[in-house]
Design goal:
With 506 residues, the protein is mainly α. It has 27 helices and no strands. The chain has helices spanning 5-16, 38-52, 56-69, 74-86, 90-103, 109-122, 126-139, 144-152, 170-179, 185-196, 200-213, 218-230, 234-255, 263-278, 282-294, 300-304, 308-315, 319-330, 335-352, 355-371, 377-393, 397-413, 417-436, 440-453, 458-470, 474-487, 496-504. It is elongated and about 80 Å long. Residues 1-7 have low confidence and may be disordered.
């Protein structure tokens, strides 16, 4: 986590300039652009397909390859502008957009409207982006790429690439799919849109279509894993995440690309690890979390998500290790990642009973959040959880309960499959803190919230059983322990929770 962002960016740009062959199994995408070179068109289409699957390095390589064949291909420069933006190379992205604009005068009207629309998006003007797309669609109603972009433009985020697709995006993606059934991208974006709006069965169908149409793309297999996990088919999800991991490992070896330069590799590791954690296979989860934690990323969100490792350690009762991991995060150059590290250190300190130290960590996090120019919202809910837990553990129960109830509402309302699983573990941490603070009625409330959120999670039933037993309700305790054992059927044989279940069931 100490590797310079600038060093990473420079290396990525070198990788993005490498020649690349035409590939298969990545999904079909086609947009006729202004070039007389059939090969330049093919490489442009390959770059477009990679953009639609968030494979930024290979997209950039493909666009650069197209430009070797036709240096005046304006749309390839536009593709580079998008890819370089995602590769954390903003200066190069601006240069590529400038070249695209300069060459657009000799390009087709189709190319010009695409370049104009994307320029507005890259300027951060979402209303202008939408208006430009609407005008372009009036001229080119059969252009599926414009419909796909219009679906993305429904999000208020100018950096939206489809992951944050909203309910209003769906009709635009469906139009693109109707125009080009062989184009996989609509299935990809519909998967995100349905996930984000809680339509899990439809997300699963779209995710399966995406994986079928782009079998050699790690993100396609990963997306199917998303949806399988959300409908309770966690073991099948694990297989998809493992398939994605194998594809990425093969790619890194074949292309001599460091794993840390592909954002998706780390993200997939995180979800694979969390899935193993979910089913109680902690021995499989631990090395994956640890590996992910050690990978430096130029993306602040990805560095922020490294908090999954100290969260895991704290859940397993390894408080000193959790504190050490949190301190690594607290030393990060990003104020947001550093703030997240201080929050995790504070929660570890609470578990140690060191309340003043926890207060100091919370105050350090708050100062960093105030100093950050953007992104402080990422840390707001975790900080609130730390503060609520502090009040609960220090005898200010009503105040602590109110804050932790709010945290529970916030995490349960967060959109998307990643947030859904993270919410499960966050509420579990709240239930555990309530038990340790001796607030058993609140522990019961938190356990019930876990079951409402995800009745298939063994840990939810285990938490409910512990609270019921403390209340003297042995009938409920035994019923919940039976459910926990059922859902932990493939867990580590020496999982401590299973040992407790075996020792207390008749």
């Amino acid at each position: 986590m100490t590797v310079s962002f600038l060093v990473i960016a420079a290396t990525v740009l070198e990788l993005a300039a490498r020649p690349v062959p035409l590939r298969t199994g990545i999904g079909s995408a086609h947009d006729a652009v202004s070039t007389s070179s059939p090969d330049a068109q093919r490489f442009y289409d390959q770059g477009l397909a990679y953009l639609h699957s968030y494979v930024w390095i290979e997209a950039a390589r493909s666009f650069n390859q197209a430009l070797r064949l036709d240096s005046k291909l304006a749309m390839a420069h536009l593709g580079l502008a998008i890819a370089y933006t995602e590769l954390s190379a903003p200066a190069e992205a601006r240069e590529a957009l400038t070249r695209a604009k300069a060459l657009s005068g000799s390009a087709s009207e189709h190319d010009r409207v695409h370049i104009d629309a994307r320029a507005r998006q890259m300027a951060g003007d979402v209303p202008a982006f939408r208006s430009a797309l609407d005008a372009a669609l009036a001229r080119y109603p059969d252009d599926e790429e414009l419909w796909l972009a219009r679906g993305q433009a429904e999000s208020p985020d100018p950096e939206e690439r489809g992951q944050g697709s909203v309910a209003g995006s769906i009709a635009f993606y469906e139009k693109a799919l109707a125009l080009a059934p062989a184009h996989f991208a609509a299935h990809h974006y519909l998967t995100h849109a349905y996930e984000n709006t809680g339509r899990v069965d439809e997300a699963l169908a779209e995710g399966a279509a995406y994986a079928r149409m782009a079998p050699n793309v790690p993100h396609a297999r990963h997306m199917l894993g998303h949806s399988l996990r959300r409908v309770g088919k966690v073991e099948q999800a694990i297989e998809e995440f493992r398939a994605a991991d194998a594809l990425e490992a093969s790619y890194f070896e074949a292309e001599a690309i460091p794993a840390g330069y592909d954002w998706h590799y780390q993200h997939n590791l995180d979800l694979l690890a969390a899935s193993y954690q979910y089913v109680g296979r902690m021995k499989m989860a631990e090395p994956l979390f640890k590996t992910s934690f050690a990978i430096a990323s130029p993306l602040v969100v990805q560095e922020f998500n490294k908090r999954a490792w100290p969260v895991f350690l704290r859940a397993r009762g390894r408080i000193d290790e959790a504190l050490s991991a949190a301190r690594v995060m607290a030393g990060h150059r990003s104020p947001i990642v550093s703030a997240a590290g201080h929050v995790e250190a504070g929660r570890a300190r609470l578990a140690q009973g060191k309340f003043q130290a926890a207060t100091d960590e919370a105050n350090a996090a708050l100062r960093l959040m105030k100093s950050a120019r953007e992104g402080a919202g990422l840390v707001a809910t975790p900080l609130k959880a730390l503060q609520g837990e502090f009040f609960l553990r220090t005898g200010q129960r009503e105040r602590g309960r109110a804050m932790l109830e709010q945290v529970t509402r916030e995490v349960r309302a967060a959109a998307g499959p990643d947030a859904w699983t993270q919410a499960t573990f966050e509420i579990e941490a709240i239930a555990r803190a309530a038990r340790e603070a001796g607030d058993w009625s609140f522990a019961t409330w938190a356990a019930r919230q876990m079951i409402e959120h995800d009745a298939r999670y063994a840990g939810a039933h285990y938490a409910r059983a512990l609270a019921a037993r403390h209340e003297g309700d042995e009938k409920t305790a035994q019923a919940e322990l039976a459910l926990a054992a059922q859902y932990w059927v493939d867990a580590d044989s020496d999982l401590p929770e299973l040992k407790t279940i075996r020792s207390t069931r008749p």
